[in-house]
Amino acid sequence: MMRQYELVERVKAYDPDACETTLNRAYVYATQKHGSQKRASGDPYFSHPIEVAGILTHYKLDCDTIITALLHDTIEDTDATPEEIIKLFGANIFKLVDGVTKLTQIELKSADSKQAENFRKLLLAMSEDIRVLLVKLADRLHNMRTLHYILKPEKRVRIAAETLEIYAPLAERIGMHDIKEELEDLAFEHLNPEARGSIMARLEFLRLKDDNVVDRIVSQLDKSINGEGLNARIYGREKRPYSIWQKMQRKNITFGELSDIMAFRVLVDTMPQCYEVLGYLHAGYKVVPGRFKDYISTPKPNGYRSIHTTVIGPENHRIEVQIRTREMHEVNENGVAAHWSYKQGSALQKEGTQYRWLRDLLDILEHASEPEEFLEHTKLAMFQDQVFCFSPKGDVIALPAHATPVDFAYMIHTHIGDTCVGAKVNGAMVPLRTQLNNGDQVEIVTSKAQTPNPTWERFVMTGKARARIRRFIRQQQEKQYKDLGKAILQKAFRQEGYEYSEKAIDGVLKIFKMPSVDSLLAAVGSGNHTGREIVHAVFPGTKDAETARKIVPLERARNRKRDHAIPIKGLIPGMAVHYAGCCHPLPGDRIVGIVTTGKGVTIHTIDCDTLETFADQPERWLDVGWDNEGEPEHFVGRLGLTVAHEKGALSTITSVIAKNLGNITNLRFTNRTQDFFEMLIDIDVVDVRHLTNIIAALRATPVVNTVERARG
Length: 712
Ligand code: MN
Prior knowledge:
single chain; alpha+beta; Hypothetical protein af1432; Beta Polymerase, domain 2; Ubiquitin-like (UB roll); 5 domains; six-stranded mixed beta sheet; four-stranded mixed beta sheet; 30 helices; 16% strand; binds manganese (II) ion
């Protein structure tokens, strides 16, 4: 275990300004807090945070990162409190420690690989400060190095699999190649010990067969390259077992064919020298075709830059050679962490602009004058445009920032989206428009009766949800048009004296260039064709159509007129409208529309009792209002009157109504007693105010006992 002074010395070696006091305080605090806790290895627990801190000193990370490493398990595993850590080490350190703790607390429950990708993104998104992630990776590395102490095989396999799936790719993502390779190899050891064992044996065999081959090749290459006056440094090594294993799987080669196990690296000072070295190699040795890759002109997404080539090298060995500058090498191996060692400014910063997702980070690096300013800005912008939430089963769902439970529901399954009525976030019910946050656990409540709500469109963030909602609205409209078209046609057929038949309509589809009966019905419903047009196409010989219309009874003619002139807002143009006979709505009344299949829309007053019948069918309700801009129209107002049973009473009433410009269209006695008549009178009026005037006038008439608008 590293001693206190050793750690401080190491940090001071690369950062002379390191805050020695705080480092010492953190070391002592961690040892005290973890006290007598033991690791599976039997070591005192505090050896772990100290080793993690030690790993991070290799990357020359700043003092705050090292302190965070020392404290990283205190909140989770000891009685240390946030208050105490803030008091002793400041709010910044606490934020970092807290970040690592949060990463430790989330756990991947699903094994599928898309989940793994989302989980990696979640970890990245939650590591607002890249240093949090660096500490987490070092933590995992040390745990993997000591994994063999864990007794339960299932636990070892679980941790190793998670490392391979999540942490090794994460290390690669942020360019920490070194850590990535070591994590992979350690995981490989626990996940597939047989395969690893035979690879190791094969390597041993090749090594014995060909003693010191790597060294001999290095010196040969050194001669041919540095003989040309370059200051190149050449390294050779065996590839790691896991990368050999991957290659065997990828290329489907057998063990005997496995020759390509040596990798050589040439480090030079400048980029042009890289291509110079390449020239010497390709001129001096036979090139293996198809193996040349130039990651200098086209870097990998994580910023990796190098030239790769494979040649039949010295002693006829097939060797892979990677050529790069020393600075590229540093970044290739240490990724993000490399930038701390280069913060004083160098050529790297300019070259670094080739990074993709790291571009922002480097941009700050280039423009920040002080190291502190750089650190201040290293809060990662990456994945800030996404949030990652958990399903009840533990799946990670990636969503765009500001996404809502409705987006989440649609992401899980279209049907769940269509029928969602509510959501629980972290156990509490929330409105569907609530914005989700990273790490939220979301549970969707569904109901069979629910359908997509058009208002959702205003707050959903995903294209999938939006598309579904729009499609649903369109389908609804089409259905309404179709029902309406059918109603119009049925009426048109009847008026012309024919039986309505869809078979007959099917025969004239071509004339109207329609693919199906449904689309023709919709065309009629939307007003693109009239019912008569269709009837006349079906029965071309109908000559007495004009006559037929003349004999339509007067009342029906008036009703038809009303059906066509629609003073209602909120409906599809051309939709058939009926005014409910139960409540006789009038302009000025508050109204709703009820969609009736095959009949269009029936308008009721909002207080009509009939509406209760439709209470459990919200999909049939239409929000409508009166369109005041229309021409003055006549509507039927129905009044219930109780009138004194005396001579001339009826004529008094009719003349009062006439004086007030009301036109009686129907009159019916409902009850007659010794003293009173009860009757219903239908009166054509302009609007509700007109009717109210008539009611007032009637109430002022002595023979009238009571007047009410008749409803229900
Ligand atoms: Mn730990």
